[in-house]
Write a structure and sequence with these properties.
The structure is a single chain. By secondary structure, the protein is of the alpha+beta class. The protein folds into three domains: 177 residues, no CATH class; 69 residues; 84 residues, no CATH class. The chain has nine helices and 14 strands. Strands 1-2-6-7-8-9 form a six-stranded mixed beta sheet, sandwiched between helices. Strand 6, helix 6 and strand 7 form a beta-alpha-beta unit. Helix 3 packs across helix 5. It starts with 5 loop residues before the first helix and ends in a 15-residue tail after the last helix.
């Protein structure tokens, strides 16, 4: 049922992490774990990112809406004063002031802050304080098949992640082989990175190597360029430092992206409007299935250029319009609804989205 494709491996890994993180323990429910797939910063994108946060603070975050707050909106919301004030007096200037003013307007249009004009000046005040709801970030690289080339590329990525220290923990998840010594333990990697052997078919995982907690509150090192290691490569390594405040802001941005996107948005890069596209349930998880190929499919397969791609008949697309739409619209709405219910709200217990 499950091949060595990284896409389906990621989806299964995300569902397992949502239910079982941290591995080998039973969560008491005081912390919430939100899972995002293919999220990151401008320079780096991770396969899976976990945002572990305080449940009470996460409930307060829900008051700011279901959509993520981007970097500019975060600066406005976090620095908005309790009383009316001219925006130039209270907000840091991270861009030309005319753009800062535009971001204040955007925040007000989304109901995040109050905005008014007083004698021609734009003033703002906060509606409520933005909570630092995310306590820990866990970055996971998914490599079900660690061949030589994949292992080399992975080692370089992990060294950069550890040096920067943006996430509290860095992991690599690979497909469990059942061998006496898992191949992942024999590959080159920084000792600070953890190793997890995962079986997507049975949804079982084993920690092969525990990670070290990285110093996220200290300056990080961004590796710009490093020698290849070949005997003939005499080039010098290039790096730069990232100050703690910049890291804290980027961690908040990354947590917001996890909050807003989750891992069930895979239909955004697929073709649910194809008549063969379906969602199949495996262990209380919905996965993309092609009725024509009669198997689960990878995201790279489900495109408009697929040989079997066939748009939904017009009668399908208009059935129940405008309330329900066709099957493709229904599947998108179903996944979006499950993603929304994955965020703990007032009075709710620990998220078990796939069971809903």
């Amino acid at each position: 049922m499950f091949d060595d494709g990284e896409f389906l491996f990621e989806l299964r890994m995300c569902a397992w992490a949502e239910r079982n993180w941290p591995p080998g323990t039973t969560r008491a429910g005081e912390q919430a774990v939100l899972v995002g797939r293919q999220v990151g910063t401008r320079r780096r994108r991770w396969d899976t990112v976990l945002a572990v946060g305080d449940r009470e603070a996460l409930k307060r975050r829900a008051d700011f809406g279901e959509r993520e707050l981007d970097s500019d909106l975060l600066r406005v919301v976090r620095n908005a004063p309790a009383e009316w004030a001219w925006y130039r007096d209270v907000l840091p200037q991270w861009a030309p002031w005319r753009y800062v003013r535009e971001h204040v307007t955007r925040a007000a249009e989304r109901g995040l802050v109050d905005r008014r004009k007083n004698s021609g000046r734009v003033e703002l005040r906060r509606r409520q304080a933005y909570p630092d709801w995310c306590d820990r970030l866990i970055a996971i690289e998914n490599k079900p098949d660690l061949d030589a080339s994949a292992a080399d590329a992975l080692a370089d990525q992990l060294h950069r992640d550890v040096a920067l220290g943006l996430a509290d923990e860095v992991w690599v998840a690979t497909k469990q082989t059942g061998e006496a010594i898992e191949p992942a333990l024999l590959t080159e990697r920084p000792p600070e990175a953890g190793v997890l052997a995962f079986a997507p078919q049975s949804m079982a995982a084993e920690v092969l190597w525990h990670p070290q907690t990285l110093p996220v509150d200290k300056p990080g090192t961004r590796i710009e360029e490093r020698p290849s290691g070949d005997a003939g490569d005499l080039s010098a390594a290039r790096f730069s430092y990232v100050d703690p405040e910049t890291k804290r802001h980027r961690r908040r941005v990354l947590a917001e992206r996890v909050y807003g996107r989750g891992f069930r948005s895979f239909v955004d890069s697929m073709r649910p409007d194809c008549r063969w596209f379906q969602l199949r349930e495996e262990d209380r998880q919905l996965l993309p299935y092609c009725a024509s190929k009669e198997r689960l499919i990878e995201a790279r397969e489900c495109t408009g250029s697929c040989p079997v791609f066939e748009p939904e008949p017009p009668t399908w697309r208009t059935k129940g319009w405008p309330i329900e739409g066709g099957p493709g619209t229904l599947q998108q709405r179903l996944l979006a609804d499950r993603r929304t219910r994955g965020r703990p709200r007032d009075g709710e217990k620990e998220s078990r989205t796939d069971e809903n």
